[in-house]
User: Fold this.
Amino acid sequence: MIEPEQVLNQSEVPVPSNVYNKKIRQKTGKVEWLHKALIVLVLIGLIIGIVLPLVELLFVALEKDGEFVGLANFIHYFQTPSLVQSMYNTLSVSLITGVISVVLAFFYAYALTRTNIRWKSFFKYIAFLPLFAPTMMHGIALIYLFGNKGVITTGFFGFFEKVTGLNLAVDINLYGPIGIIISEVIYTFPQAFLILMVAIAVTDYRLYEAADTLGASKLKKFFTVTVPSIKYGLVSAFFVAFILSFTDFGAPKVVGGHYNVLATDIYKQVVGQQNLSMGSTVGIILIIPALIAFIADRLIQRKQSSSFSSKSVGYQIKKNNLRDRLYFVYCLVISVGVLSLIGAVLAAALVKVWPYDFSLTFEHLTFKNVAGNGLQPYFNSIFVSLITAVLGTIVIFIGAYLIEKSRFMKLTRQVSYFLSILPLALPGLVIGLAYIFFFNKPEFQLPFIGITVVNPFQSLYGTFMIIVIANIIHFYSVNLITATTALKKLDKEFEPVSESMNIPFYKTFASVTVPMSLPAILEMGIYLFVNSMTTISAVIFLYTADTKLASISIVNMTDAGDTAPAAAMSIIIVLTNIIVRVVYELATKKIRKRTQAWQQR
Amino acid sequence: MEKLLEIQNVTKTFGKFIALENIDFNVNKKEFVCLLGPSGCGKTTLLRIIAGLEDPNVGSKILLEGKDITDSPPSKRNFGIVFQSYALFPNLTAYQNIAYGLKNKKLPKKEIDERVRDALSLIHLEHIKDRYPAQLSGGQQQRIALARALALSPSFLLLDEPLSALDAKVRLKLRMEIRKLQETLKITTIMVTHDQEEALTMADKIVIMNNARLEQMGTPQEIYEFPKTPFVADFIGTVNTLAHEGTSLAIRPEHIYIVNEEVENSVKAVVKGMEFRGAFYRLFLQMLDKNKYQVADELLAVDVPASLVRKMNIEKESIVQAELPQNHLVTYEHV
Assistant:
């Protein structure tokens, strides 16, 4: 035992000079070795899937006809008026989309959280409906409603005029910015709605009570309590809508007409003119605003975390019939809008020759004699989506687990986390383009040492696997966040406790972590499936005749003027997604209930 | 006494921040040691280093029964641990939680069952063995976590603030139960706590830490009676800090007596405040002779039995004689 005097001396020992940061290294057993190897593997995977292709893309953007030309391509870009015009176009379309989408979604979310309207769950499902469709479908629907022969443009084919004697035909000049903006608003509405709904739901009611006791008016409360408490949500929703529409390819492709945006420019440069360097240059320009919005959003979200405490009180909705009636009408109008889009596409898919012969037919569903290779692309899509869902969920969840729950290799894990979150700022088109360059290259010249290495991944080029990988990387971040959120809910001491009992990490992972996170894991799977069914941007560059997907065939068919079969394919995709979602909801009800019971404290 | 754990010169830095500085102490076999200190003093970091969950700086040493385990992973250190959150696996029943570590040892089923039942009977919770953690009270969860840690018969037990998530009544009850269990099993235990009462009532030995350093170590009585630094005196119980002829002194309120007449070491004072505390009153005295002692906080706190207060008719503004017995005046050597 140490004598008290000795102990006392401790307090006056000056900071010794040998206090330096070097840490004792623990001996590595088999299990620890495996654990560390997996962490390294995650990083390597992310480097191959994200960093190397992007580097390759950058190289291509810096060369012309195989020669290094520095920033010449960028200079050329900014000196070409037509190209600069499309950047301006893209910015204005996205800004307008962001504002409209956020405003519409805010009142919709407000109606569902702060009023007593009926049909709330119906309205909620309707709001999510556009998520199940490829963006081309919104464009196709608009063509049937507002296009040259559209229902509204022709005043219900002259029917209104006949009945009322008034000319009610309205031509909104669909092809161009208007069509793109409407499509993008529909596309981004669910995402903005979801963010705002969460933001509004976590407001502390005590603030409203305090405002009431101080005699604040309704308007004053709105600007001093409601807006400040959801401002981060508003900004976040705007950024998300902005990025989505900034990088979207499907809608401008279908209803853009001669109005060029960056996404269609890339496609034209690469596929039309075979100008890969200029395509890459535009690709990199496409990343920049997305990256800025992404960083801004991250910074803002970091600020947000402290505003809501466990003591906060949920909002209590007061009775107000007039308010409820107004919001009900508002939600109804939006829902009718969404449903009429689907209705229009459904009609287009099922009538013989729009608008001349409205007799029903299933002919379009056979995809005979059109540019779409029959139903094969649909089955390809199902196949790719299933593989993406299964493989992606496994890879992303394990990656998230290692990053979140390990106590080894902190720096490596931090780099992996950064890379995992990066795809959020990467447009699908850029991923697809970068993949062409990376996976199509026969060999790599290692920098500085001049050694040439054969590209081991080249065999993936032109296969379903490269599409699957592109999808997984494209949707990596969102799913990583889902997984991380679920993992953070689990006690961080599960792993140390297991270690103290000499139980390898993979056993606790399998017997505790996975069962506890099952709802999140299933959610990830369904997200990957649905999005792989609808995505176009990343895969448009990666398909071959044998690996064509349903979404690509929609683009091919609209290009060839086969709009009705394109509508039919869209409907099939939407239906598939809805069915999968419903089956998922029913099948996992029990699992979710059980996990919830475990999680109660 | 036989040493089980030797903590030698343990230092831990996080970048420029020093979390632990040259910590040295031993833990004897069968001993219950409390690491006590305010939050941020480094006690939890020390526990995690002992467990092998954090790597200390080079130069630190931890010996288990004379064997250097500083670079051993947690799985090779043979300890049981209970965290503040208990970290019970929510999808496993109480029984399965306790059996979790045993199953991995590839023991025969019958033996696992026996050992789980033994552990359950030890904590008197046989009747809730099939419930999930969410269906248990905080105290029950805590005991299951304890049983899980003990089921593998570890060579020592680490407790990280095991009682702080419980409400006051349960805490008092479990305090006794844990100590009783520890005595029955004779298992060496290190417990981290910020609650001085917990440390005083449970520990054989208290290690007081502050600002990454070890302030004082000793039995609860030693620490209470003879605090070596103002920090310790102030952290454990209440203390009056005085200055007397250039030296710094400390005395606890209950060690000051109110006497009838002037005696050696007594001072005349006026009662400036009274707090009724049930069995006793805490008086706040202002010394009339300001030259003898200088009280750091102006007023001297004195605990007087309620009966005496009534007998002596003490009230506000009464003039009293307070005796500061020499044997209870602690002198700090280093201030």
Q: What stands out?
A: The radius of gyration of chain B is 24 Å. Chain B has two domains: 3-230, 238-331. The mean pLDDT of chain B is 92. The longest helix of chain B spans residues 168-185.
